[in-house]
Design a protein that fits this description.
homodimer, mainly alpha, Glutaredoxin, Glutathione S-transferase Yfyf (Class Pi), Chain A, domain 2, two-stranded antiparallel sheet, 59% helix, 4% strand, globular, GST_C (chains A, B), transferase (chains A, B)
Chain lengths: 222, 222
Amino acid sequence: MLSSPFVQRVKLALSFKGLSYEYVEENLQNKSHVLLSSNPVHKKVPVLIHNGKCICESMIIVQYLDEVFAGAGPSLLPADPYERAMARFWAAYIDDKLLSSWMTAFRGKNDEEKEEGRKLSAAMAENLEEALRNKPFFGGDNVGFVDIALGGFAAWVHAVEKIYGIKKFDAAKTPLLAAWVERFGALDAAKAVLPDVDVLVEVGKRRQAESDAAAAAAAQGN
Amino acid sequence: MLSSPFVQRVKLALSFKGLSYEYVEENLQNKSHVLLSSNPVHKKVPVLIHNGKCICESMIIVQYLDEVFAGAGPSLLPADPYERAMARFWAAYIDDKLLSSWMTAFRGKNDEEKEEGRKLSAAMAENLEEALRNKPFFGGDNVGFVDIALGGFAAWVHAVEKIYGIKKFDAAKTPLLAAWVERFGALDAAKAVLPDVDVLVEVGKRRQAESDAAAAAAAQGN
């Protein structure tokens, strides 16, 4: 699942920390025994297998990597407890709030719900913008925990713009986020692992077509 | 908001770590300037104010306390990175999965949805049961991060049983969880801060009546 933003987070963390690994692609239509046994609760990617132990959930994996490989590459979480708490706060905000508003904006039941999702995601982006005030990255001068959390969506931001003509981060309303997407995506460690935008465009178009077909079938009562 | 399970988590963490604090009650119908300015994003309790800095979101506060007061009382998160990842995994599971199934079971739109929520929450409790295998607490011999996450609901488990006659943790299906609720609630540090069950019963009955009235009004098209 190269297209998964959650898989991309783990790849980004590995890349920024300069760690080598073996990547195993998973077919979610026909999940492997390895996936089902290594993540029996959620049965989802990504899963990190390290020293024979399985770690699940993208941001939990990122924290694990940061703790186990504390000496490798830059620390993703800051040393100061308050700054750590703030990093966890914004990473959770991305998952709990921003992401769900994006889903509503693109997968809402009708145009009204989608419009509501777009408004909500714009308001949420404005909140998140505050966390970038006066610094190039959420982590400060360097990429940190929140950059990885949002970075998983960096390639998708461009793909969505190509498919729908919609900028997830409006340069007029959230200029810092709009600039961040470009700045983050230009980093060598990000370029090394972020998927090709055109591939995501194809994935996105296919999903939209499937979603439209399902909605049409539901409307016909099939 | 003494009745909030999220507030109770923070009080539990403070109690188990033996930390003293000033508790300020908040009226959520008329939120104070302090709350609105200290948690401008979510505008929710709990908020921890420490050294003039505001930390929000219950489990982020618990981690903050564990890091800042590493020398005070027992550590809530284990030292081993894999064990830490597992503790974070189950704490997130309680918030993302178990809690939302409970909400559906009690606040579902109709009886069908409520029944679905009850089945789901039973299945999720069975998953969580595995994390208690062969140990008295999620943290092992002592209370840890996951015990605090679930412990915030310990008094509510009893209140719900009194109101609805429903055991959230069925002794037949999830005996370890059923025993854990009793074991956890009997600890001095928990008893010191968990709210009185009868008070929660009154809160729960009032909310149910409000919810029923709102549903009846909606059904009449008001």
